[in-house]
Design a protein that fits this description.
Number of strands of chain B: 12
Largest sheet of chain A: 8 strands, mixed
Distance between the termini of chain B: 33 Å
Oligomer: heterodimer
Number of strands of chain A: 12
Shape of chain B: globular
Number of helices of chain B: 11
Helix content of chain A: 25-40%
Low-confidence stretches of chain B: none
Strand content of chain A: 15-25%
Structural class of chain A: alpha/beta
Structural class of chain B: alpha/beta
Mean pLDDT of chain B: 88
Radius of gyration of chain A: 22 Å
Largest interface: A-B, 47 and 50 residues
Number of helices of chain A: 10
Strand content of chain B: 15-25%
């Protein structure tokens, strides 16, 4: 059962870019060199990943050097449309945060491509990446540990402005910071305060101001509200949506809160053990989940309506280890529809069940009834 | 008709801080009938966990102290018991399950050993007998191959399994009342559904009462009979679950319900709907306003709200037993 060589399992799952995706040759070096925004029409897709994978090595034992791998992200192809929100849901350990970090190239993929506005980020070095870093930002889950406690709001928000030399003068910088505080709903007087003087919701606003400081296009929101109280969550969600509308931002919204994801997302992707098992428009996915895992996940959400205690699809057991994932479809040991000989033999690829519907599922026995 | 199993009356629990004494639980009253399930809802710092710890007299002292009130289990006031008498109640008649199964289990003993210890503390059973009971409990809470897993150490089990072990330990002596403080908050939603289903089944099978402390209104809606909403150390609303969700009688409860996104209608692609929010922040317990504690965030505020804090009082309701601490409860 030991995988000593990461790609040896069954290779990258074959998945093709759906129609409408910029053809691979659009990213050829010659094209990119001469490209400016005026010479090429803006593609609808802002960020795309193609057969992206990240394997983390784990020690096998105390005395052996043989390595095994956690398949945190295992051949994911996705695209995020400009100005829209892609919601990414899944349980802890399914690889959703790793995928978010890969998309920003905060960590390097084991294989696969990451295309930002048509340009492959994977071969780029740190220097070449820097101008692109400005366009991609991240908001973290824990507003308590993601802000430096020894820096004031001014320093936290201003740091990126200085790194990217966005302000002409220090007066200009101060004006930019004040604008940012206005945008995220913090009082200008808070500029010289330290993070500990703020509540969780306000700290998350500082995190958002910091991300906005460099005028990004794409923001990965990694569980941005999970650490906050219910009444504060709604404030932050509204803020993120207002900013999206005002600034035309594109979000990857990672969360395990399915109700919030439904609320904010245009498209939703469901992840299980490093793979996307289903992707569709939010309303399609929540109304008619096609993958048995998606259905179980959605049915597990408790409803705020005591009259509607609904039928629950309870899954057996726990999520298997991503170190030695099950053969074939990695959901088959817990799946009520699994069929021996098919589901445990090969992994289904993510494809549209009804051509043109945009509703993609990776399942041999999708819930079509 | 028998009285309630547990009755908490005018409980005040305070903590000494550098800036004076702070009441974390301020004149809180509620009761649980035998076999019933009570939900205590509120945001962090509202006093819901301290209420539960007070019932078991587990509030760390100092700095904490139960100042006044009564906690009656079948008519017996727990606050008047000696430490030894209280130990005989904890884990035996009233048990508690905490949020963090990782930190509540001892990492150097097998889970079976830890359940055996809990059983032998309260019951005169031999080791072999207690071990058999521990395995039986693990099976009851849905742990696969319980005999093998009883020999496992906590780190060898997943988060969901550890929480099941905690529940197995808590119910091993068949308590009359189980206090569950955010029992599923650290768990994934599919595991949460498993654990809550297990708790419901155990309650029905053992006739056990449950106090479920949570911030998740969905969990409350599905798993409790009666709900107590706490805000800034006070009970602001108390009602049967159906009537509180059908018609909340306190603006805070209504705000909480409205800030949860509703499922969208089929084919509705719009994502620009705003969530209703509760503006502002929870008041600092060290500097409470003279009037209603929710007043400065309240959309229904009138001048009288800022003058004197309203009492928790009965409001007319079909189901009865609906109480609210709002001057304008009838208008809602």
């Amino acid at each position: 059962m030991v995988n000593s060589d990461p790609p040896a399992r069954e290779g990258p799952p074959d998945s093709l870019f759906p129609s409408g995706f910029p053809p691979a040759n659009a990213g050829s070096p010659d094209d990119l060199a001469g490209r400016t925004d005026s010479t090429r029409p803006r593609s609808r897709t802002l960020v795309a990943v193609d057969r992206l994978a990240k394997y983390f090595p784990v020690e096998r034992g105390w005395f052996t050097r043989e390595e095994r791998f956690v398949r945190a992200v295992d051949g994911v192809s996705l695209r995020v449309r400009r100005g829209e929100t892609l919601g990414l849901v899944g349980e802890s350990g399914c690889g959703k945060s790793t995928l978010g970090r890969l998309m920003l190239r905060l960590i390097d993929p084991t294989y696969g491509r990451i295309l930002y506005d048509g340009k492959d980020l994977v071969p780029l070095g740190q220097t070449a990446l820097r101008p692109l870093r400005r366009k991609m930002q991240i908001i973290f889950q824990d507003p308590y540990s993601s802000l430096n406690p020894r820096m004031t709001v001014k320093q936290i928000v201003g740091e990126a402005i200085r790194v990217h030399k966005l302000a002409a003068s220090s007066a200009d910088e101060a004006r930019m910071i004040a604008d940012l505080l206005d945008q995220v709903g913090l009082r200008r007087e808070s500029i010289d305060r330290y993070p500990h003087e703020f509540s969780g919701g306000q700290r998350q606003r500082i995190g958002i101001a910091r991300a906005l400081a460099v005028q990004p296009e794409f923001i990965v929101c990694d569980e941005p509200i999970s650490a906050l109280d219910v009444s504060i969550q709604a404030q932050i969600v509204n803020l993120l949506q207002d900013l999206q509308e005002r600034l035309g931002l594109t979000y990857l919204f990672i969360s395990h809160d399915l109700k919030i994801v439904e609320h904010v997302s245009h498209q939703v992707a469901v992840m299980y053990l490093g793979r996307i098992v289903e992707q569709a428009a939010a309303s399609d996915l929540y109304e008619h989940p096609l993958h048995p895992y998606s259905r179980a996940l959605l049915s597990a959400v408790p409803f705020v309506d005591p009259g509607r205690r609904k039928l629950r699809v309870l899954l057996e057991g726990d999520v298997p280890s991503p170190i030695d994932p099950p053969s074939g479809c990695s959901f088959h040991p817990r799946c009520p529809r699994a069929e021996p000989g098919t589901c445990d033999a090969s992994a289904p690829s993510l494809a549209e069940v009804v051509a043109g519907s945009g509703h993609k599922v990776a399942c041999f026995h999708p819930l079509l009834d | 008709m028998p009285g309630p199993l547990l009755r908490v009356r005018d409980l005040v629990t305070s903590f000494r801080t550098a800036e004076g004494t702070v009441r974390a639980v301020d004149q809180v009253s509620f009761q649980v009938d035998a076999g019933a399930s009570l939900g205590i809802v509120g945001e962090s710092g509202c006093g819901k966990s301290v209420s539960a710890l007070s019932i078991l007299r587990l509030v760390p002292s100092p700095p904490g102290q139960i100042e006044s009130g009564a906690i009656e289990l079948e008519g017996r006031d727990l606050l008047g018991l000696s430490s030894a008498e209280m130990r005989a109640i904890r884990g035996n008649e009233i048990s508690m399950v905490f949020q963090e199964p990782m930190t509540s289990l001892n990492p150097v003993y097998t889970v079976g050993w830890q359940i055996v210890e809990a059983i032998r503390l309260h019951q005169k059973r031999g080791r072999r007998d207690a071990w058999a009971r521990a395995v039986e409990m693990l099976q009851l809470v849905g742990i696969p191959s319980p005999e093998t897993n009883a020999r496992a150490y906590p780190h060898q089990l997943s988060g969901g399994m550890r929480q099941r072990v905690m529940i197995a330990m808590a119910i091993a002596c068949e308590p009359k009342l189980l206090l569950a403080d955010e029992p599923t908050t650290a768990l994934d939603v599919t595991i949460q559904a498993q654990i809550l289903a297990t708790l419901r089944e155990l309650r029905q099978r053992l006739g056990m009462s449950l106090i479920l402390i949570t911030h998740d209104l969905g969990v409350v809606a599905e798993h409790t009979d009666h709900v107590v909403v706490m805000y800034a150390a006070r009970v602001v609303e108390s009602a049967p679950v159906a009537s509180i969700f059908a018609r909340p009688r306190h603006p805070y409860t209504r705000g909480l319900l409205e800030s949860i996104p509703r499922p969208r209608a089929a084919g509705d692609e719009a994502v620009r709907r705003r969530l209703t929010t509760i503006e502002g922040l929870v008041p600092d317990l060290r500097h409470l306003p003279p009037g209603c504690r929710f007043a400065d965030r309240c959309p229904m505020r009138v001048d009288a709200c800022g003058e004197k804090e309203p009492d928790l009082r009965a409001v007319p309701d079909d189901a009865g037993a609906h109480e609210s601490r709002c001057l304008r409860a009838e208008e809602m």
